[in-house]
């Protein structure tokens, strides 16, 4: 979550947050990324749409590029061995 400069400092999100992840800091307020669970309740109550939904703590996955898209998946059947022992 990111509180943008549209924040008017009304405190509605701060009172709504079940994790107390939003801290008063004038306007805009601060969202403690470690405490935020991403429930979105603060976004719902903000009267000026000042909170943007971001997931900085979410696990990152590599961007899907043409190179990675063409790579064989981990679940693909194993390929034949390159050489055979005799
Ligand atoms: S998304 Fe939920 S936990 Fe995170 S700051 Fe908003 S109300 Fe709090
Ligand atoms: S509800 Fe919106 S305007 Fe009010 S303090 Fe939170 S971010 Fe700022």
UniProtKB/TrEMBL annotation:
Concerning InterPro entries, the annotation shows: 4Fe4S_Fe-S-bd, 4Fe4S_Fe_S_CS, Fe-S_Ferredoxin
Report keywords, A-Z: 4Fe-4S, Iron, Iron-sulfur, Metal-binding
Q: Where is this region: Disordered?
A: 57-86
Gene3D superfamilies recorded: 3.30.70.20
Q: Name one GO molecular function term.
A: metal ion binding
Q: Does the keyword S-adenosyl-L-methionine apply?
A: no
Q: Does the keyword Aminoacyl-tRNA synthetase apply?
A: no
Return the Pfam families for the record.
Answer: Fer4_10
Report the superkingdom from the record. Bacteria
Q: Which residues form the 4Fe-4S ferredoxin-type domain?
A: 1-24, 26-56
From the UniProt record, list the coiled-coil ranges. Answer: none
* Protein name per UniProt: Ferredoxin
| Originating species | Allostreptomyces psammosilenae
